[in-house]
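Human: Here is a favour to ask of a fellow structure person. Comparing notes only helps if you start from a blank page. I am asking you to supply a protein in sequence and structure-token form. Write it directly below this note and I will take it from there.

Assistant:
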Amino acid sequence: MRTRALAIAIGVVLPALALAKPKVAVVQFDGDSNGQVQDVVADLLEEDYAVTGPKQVNRALNKLGFEADMTDKQLKKLANELEADAIVRGDLSQSGKRKLLHVRLFLNGKRIRGFKVEFASVKSEKFKDALKTKMLEKLSGEEKPVAKKKKGEEAAEPAADEEDPTASKKGKKKKKGEEDVAAAEPTEKAETKKKKKGEEEESGEATGDEEKTDEDDAKAKKRTARADGDTDEVDNELTEGVEVEPKSQRGPNVPAVRLDVGGSGSTRSLRFNSRPFEEAPNPYSNSLVGGARVAGELYPLAFGNPYRLIAGLGIGGHYDQTLKLGLRSTAQPDTEFPVTQRHWSVGLRIRIAFGSRPTSPTLTLGGGYFQRMFVVDRSQLMAGNILDLPDIVYKGFDPGLEVRIPIIRAVAFVFGGKAMLVTSAGPIQQPDSYGQAKVTAAEVMVGADIMFTRIIGMRLIAEGSQYGFAFTGNGEQARERDHDPSQVDVGGAADRYLGFAGSITVLY
């Protein structure tokens, strides 16, 4: 009977104890794609709390129509929906070879100060022990919210894990593992706390200077939190055995906005593949001519953490036009015929950063629509005269890539290439010209980025492109130049452009 009664008692008491555990809801961590860190957090809390997992939390978020970034009012509604005493959120980012975890907390209807930890491996016992200690400390409610003080009001009592400035002067010693807040305080604040040797200290009261310094420090912490893009207060203290670093800043390798404005120079040559005969087309080439260029890229999601994969989605393009180019013909040697030569493109970009430092290399994949043209103004050509040079207007798509490898923060080597998928070549493909053709083309680029300041620099590049034609022989100029249509006179052509560009760069 006693055994049965004991079993019944255990069966009743244990569930009651389990139900008595405070309830904590874990929201999916931003940047934790495989859920490893989130699972670790849940496992660490299970012994002391009843944990509501991300799946149930996501259902509640969908039901309430909330996003991951919630206001205090929304967090309170979510806590009520889940009947949770606390909500744990956060984000995970890369910091070189290590990872940075930022934990945000909502306890008993109020935000409490979050914290950051840096670690190398999620399996590290040292990391788990430090994370659990800090989590339990925060969720226990031992830390009191920092009270906002009005002017002339006495300084509020410090939180449990903050060092009391008056207590430190009474010779209180920190226990092993206790966080060192004084080391993180600005030198100016420490200076205001120094008193002359032998001066008596009034127990339980703070001087006016200390009160003012505390207010300045609180404002500085809020500014730091806003700069990090976080509305929660951030505890920048060191967790035991775990190094904490501020969030990585946006470097010249991952700007949210890039603008290049400058000049360019280029040459062009057009040569035909034809059999030797008197009426064969002559090759064309021009010397180096100057132009103007503007290029830019925009990554809207990189204004936050630029090293996240989603922050690499953007758009980009360029426009380049020769300022002045003309040509002369033996058919009308006294006339210079103006030429319009330009090229432009616009399209999507996917930028991938291999690391989270300003010296991390990047790979940018892109593709969009392009146009390149070389068109002669024939309005001054006299009747009966002919310019034996076809106009060309290339149109199509240009998938490609660009690699940027920083040598130091201020200097980087860049190179890339594109496959030019030509859908039309313009007048040269008309029946009265060279007719239909298969066109294959490619473009390459190599250069360097040089930064003078954090946002101002320059880009120097050399580039080249070539368009190859294989005529089908159905155009007059390809088959009937010798007035004998029985055989093909011109089988193909190579259109080559070589040039360079130098531009001033502005980054944000």
Summary: The domain at 2-235 is CATH 3.40.50.10070 (Rossmann fold). The mean pLDDT is 79. Helices lie at 2-19, 36-46, 54-64, 72-82, 125-139, 187-193, 208-227, 476-479.
